[in-house]
User: Fold these one by one.
Assistant:
Number 1:
Amino acid sequence: MQYEPSNIISRIEWCRFQQRLHTVTRDERAGWMAEEAGLVDALDRRDRIAFMREEHSSQFIRYLCGLEDGRALLRLSNRLLWDRARPDGLGLTPITPPAWVDRPSSRAPSRVHVGRSRR
């Protein structure tokens, strides 16, 4: 079973939406198509860098951007899934505000000014 993270799917949909705009130029449309191809390749765990560099050199940077972003999003998604699957107490710790946030202002720590020392 292949896991398809929604953040990559959303990004692919955004690229497709940009391609359909009437105000986009031919070069911009080709760029969005190349970025979409990179995202799809990342999702499919495929690498067509050599092909894209050779056949579509004008849009290679956009393809590479989509591919690298897609891979990063996959790593992030896999990391978050892995952390959630760990037993209690071993996963991500929830973000909690400091203890003094709920205290009245008179009990909050005072601000400290750090300046340069004069020598």
Note: The chain has four helices and no strands.
Number 2:
Amino acid sequence: MSAPLRVAFFGSPAFGLPVLRRLHAEHEVVVVVAQPDAPAGRGMRVRVPPVAAEARLLGLPLDQPARVRRDRAFAERLSAVRPDVAITAAYGQILPESLLSIPEHGFLNAHASLLPELRGAAPIQWALILGRDETGITVMETEAGLDTGPIRHVLRTEVEPTETAPELSTRLSHLAARAISEALGLLAEGRLPRTPQDDAKATYAPLLTKEDGDVRWHDGARDVVNRWRGVLAWPGTRFRRDGRPIRVDRMEEAGADGRLGSAGSVLSVGDHGVVVACGRGAVRLSTVTPAGRPSMPAGDWARGAHLEEGELLA
């Protein structure tokens, strides 16, 4: 078995936790780098990034620079701990070239897609929105471009047909830990391949916006449900009735008998929920959250709101 490597780990959200724990068990983590603690939410309470909290729990050296691109002192601190390799997993900042050259073996990033597909900040969400039936973790060598570096190691997995973004993110975080572990084992043995990406096949997964959560009733029912799966964590799926937003907490495809109305029209209301016509097929809204109210069964909301069959939802 190869000697443990000296590893610098860069990560911030919960996605990076399985990777950090695996690195801590198998190698020498010389520093953990996370986003700074910051106030958030209505109460502006200070929130600690999950990776930072875990580093403190494990007793690992922790650094939280505000802007690594302009922080010369941070670059000096990273150089001083002499990492053999740096690992990133959803860190949240763009790394300057001046940092990339510090570790002997550079930076390896656990990216949650099968590169060159879905380069960018939200590959898990867009894999679901686009209805992909396969995804995975690509361990890539970080360079100055947007997820353009050489592919070093890949693990694939099927996407479950009802899987949501939070569920897929959790599963891929554990796959990332395995992928990084395997990649570092190969690296230590001098057997980690380097395969250039085919830029001509690249697709992109930009950050979600609030508008990405708007229901597109004119899409097919499968596409409407796929979008709900992808945006569930944020910004969430919503439609409007009488100008007021209604968040959809749970939906699914509904059987259609061929007598569908216009896209967005209510087909039925009952204990089963609210069935709404789409451009092709229909969806069933099971649970919703009206503005200013708690989550509730869609049928209860519909009856209380006097929703009628044939009504058009925006």
Note: The helical segments are 17-26, 50-58, 72-80, 97-100, 123-129, 165-188, 221-231, 298-304.
Number 3:
Amino acid sequence: MNVALLKRPSALIPIAMSLAALGLVLGHATIYGIVHEADEGAAAHIFQILMLIQVPIVGYFLFKWLRREPGAALRVLALQLVAAAAAFASVYFLT
């Protein structure tokens, strides 16, 4: 994998945000347990914001790097998608 491309902020920020969302979910489940609440709490809203803000950043990354380095850009995109899927899977399995 082209490590230089992975060091770009537009590649690294979505991965970091997905990992932060994953940590948020796991931390909330660790502290409060798995509780089915009628109303979403602050942690749920922060998770939603973190995941939503990634969309334009990933779009910018693809717009900028897909033409220049398609192979490396697709590998970084796959890593971004795996990180996002891990965050969503944690919500799915813990609720």
Note: The two ends are 35 Å apart (CA to CA).
Number 4:
Amino acid sequence: MTQPGGQAPGQESATATIYWYSQTGQLREAAAALAAPLEKAGWQVNWVEIKPVDSFPFPWPIRRFFGVFPEAVDTSGCTEVEEFTAGPPQHPGDLVFFAFQVWYLAPSLPMRTVLRKTPQAFAGRNVIGIVACRNMWYSAAIEVQRSITAAGAAYLGTVAATDTAPALATFVTTLRWLLTGQREAFWRFPRAGVGDDELARLRALGEDLATVRRVSPEDVGVRVRDVLARNRAAPVTPAIAAADLIAGRLFRGWGRVIRSAGRRNPAERAILLGVFVTCLTGAIVAGLPTLAAVRVISPARFDEAVRRRLAPVLAGTGASDAGARR
């Protein structure tokens, strides 16, 4: 027998706390789709919005869009954010959702700031990452997982919502959306961003997650991982993932060079940024087809190598459990 909202008599209401920052609103929409079934099942869902003191513009002015690159890829890079109240005291049914945008294959500066400056908000908690992006979330999720684990939390896995339109189309539509604010379909191009199909998938995942507290709150971490794995919460496209992981390392190297040049001479920083943008365009055109061709040689070995690299952020494949064991 359960009470209204799906809780058993005498059972504490489960709590989910969602930390989030979104310029476009897409990430908030994705997190809301996941959280709606939890609220319907009687969970207490607390939304904690992260607000930069100096807001990042949307749509992005093109110089600001590329200008943020060197700091975005710096794993120690931060920005100042307004003070916020952490989630309520934990009990075994609690979950924390860390919803992050991807900036240049890294978590956005506001969300990285939360991880670096307020790790106590996550210590001893069960944490799920949520990301909504075009298609490359892998390097950013690895950085988030490492920071969450370093804070003494259990990273249970990642929920990734992506733009499922053809990759060449999304390259155009995403850039148009970010630089002009125009998201709707045009000519023969689809609407930019995460679509209704992905939001429906997140709602179905939320419905499955909502049952975890009622089944076994003491073993919630194990059961949540099972739910995430069963629902393929973070589908992996091996060639795109490999491109992301390789580019992530290259981006960090480029970022170090540009930051160092900027300390010597701002003009040199601008020149190097221009060189980076030119190289980035060429890499996008040539890199992914090259990796796809390499994968044809031995797809099983290629895919297995990618999955081993991503294991810490994928539920059911060795997600980190350094903290919050129950």
Note: The radius of gyration is 20 Å.
